[in-house]
Design a protein that fits this description.
By secondary structure, this protein is of the alpha/beta class. The protein folds into three domains: 14-158, NAD(P)-binding Rossmann-like Domain (Rossmann fold, 3-Layer(aba) Sandwich), CATH 3.40.50.720; 160-273 and 293-311, no CATH class; 327-401, RNA polymerase sigma factor, region 2, helix turn helix motif (Rna Polymerase Sigma Factor, Chain: A, Orthogonal Bundle). The chain is built from 17 helices and eleven strands. It has helices spanning 24-34, 51-60, 74-80, 92-100, 116-124, 134-151, 160-168, 194-198, 202-206, 215-223, 225-238, 276-284, 298-301, 315-326, 330-346, 352-368, 378-399, and strands at 14-19, 40-47, 65-68, 87-90, 105-108, 128-131, 154-157, 177-184, 245-249, 255-261, 266-270. The strands form two sheets. Strands 4-3-2-1-5-6-7 form a seven-stranded parallel β-sheet, sandwiched between helices. The protein has a four-stranded mixed β-sheet with strand order 9-8-10-11, covered by helices on one side. Helix 6 links the parallel strand 6 and strand 7. It is globular, with a radius of gyration of 20 Å. The chain binds NADPH dihydro-nicotinamide-adenine-dinucleotide phosphate. NADPH dihydro-nicotinamide-adenine-dinucleotide phosphate (NDP) is lined by residues 20-26, 47-50, 69, 109-111, 114, 132-135, 159, 211, 213-217, 275.
Length: 401
Amino acid sequence: MSIAVETRRAREPKSICVLGSTGSVGTSTLDLVSRDRDRFQIDALTANSNVALLAQQARDFGARFAVVANPDKYQDLKDALSGSGIEAAAGAQALNEAADRDTDFVMGAIVGAAGLEPTLTAAKRGACVALANKECLVSAGTVFLEAVKKAGATLLPVDSEHNAIFQVLETENQDEVEKIILTASGGPFRTWDKARMQAATPAEAVAHPNWSMGAKISVDSATLMNKGLEVIEAFYLFGVETSQLEVIVHPQSVIHSMVAYTDGSVLAQLGSPDMRTPIAHTMAWPERMAAPSPRLDLAEIAQLTFEAPDLERFPALRLALAALQTGGAAPTLLNAANEVGVAAFLGEEIGFLDIAAIVEETMSRALAQGLEAAPANLDDVLNLDRTGRAIATELVTAHRT
Ligand code: NDP
């Protein structure tokens, strides 16, 4: 098990830094804080460019430090916080400063590889890090986990699947784990044929049937790349063999994932598809706290169904599984190419199926350039990420509709 165990008890109230507070996971985190003000104290909040919401949150929650990543927005943030006594800052270094403050808990909820450096900063100071930002582990798995281990940090999985696995994984019986089974809703295009998928609009792709999430992860859920990224994330978090990781499509999103043991038992965590449950689990861990997620009504749901994922219609999942098998530079390149592809699709530059095509072509071009070695440190990760993005950006031009 790679997840460290927290040794010191957090202070009360627990002080919190939310990296990516203006996003879907960030606002859900603050919603939980607003319901238990005695238990939590917001210290630092960060956003990319949404200054209006960031300043509002900082004032509402009495934050001490607010950071906007986009340096052009610094003056706007300063103006919006004037008279509040809250310190405003901007830029990449300021994000790291937010993560480096002496808080009891850091929510890593920035989207994409952009979240890697600040989240790693929190890990390096030995913080208790709740990790929503799966791209961190996909692009820098070994580097990130080594930092966690070296600093004695605590890593708590926020992603609903990994949080479910964390809840049912018996650490004392780790050797008796046969399989980890990640469930996937199948996304909005689960029953669509390829021709219809290629013509899909960004609005259709982000309309997830069960979960309300940010745009990037919603598109990843539609391609099933999200499930592939999650398999890679699970590989790093739970220290199992790749052959022990399985994906099953479960359209109702009631079972969030399962662990199968050698005695034939399969333990699952269930709940309504509301991120406030796994977020609350990390915020209160090792205790529990109340969350307002809708309660499950199994009689109303009536049926839980399952099907094998279709790797032909959803090649992104196949590519992610292959990248995990290949190892080395492959997961970092996959993640970088996918971020470029998703952004180009959301910007209506390419069609939906072009996302996976661009990822696949990026991987083969990178391989042809001899980019195989696993990144050994943060600089290696960032270099590989840049190279993957450059190749994928060229391919976007070739695929432009
Ligand atoms: P959102 O797009 O809703 O929010 C992203 C947050 O990151 C915002 O605060 C945004 O600021 C900030 N941000 C974006 N780009 C940058 C950047 N370059 N530098 C610094 N900050 C940046 O994403 P989600 O909340 O949906 O997802 C966050 C992470 O959690 C992702 O890695 C996702 O895969 C993961 N996750 C999300 C789930 C969900 O239900 N949403 C479930 C499980 C995992 P601004 O608002 O100013 O743009």
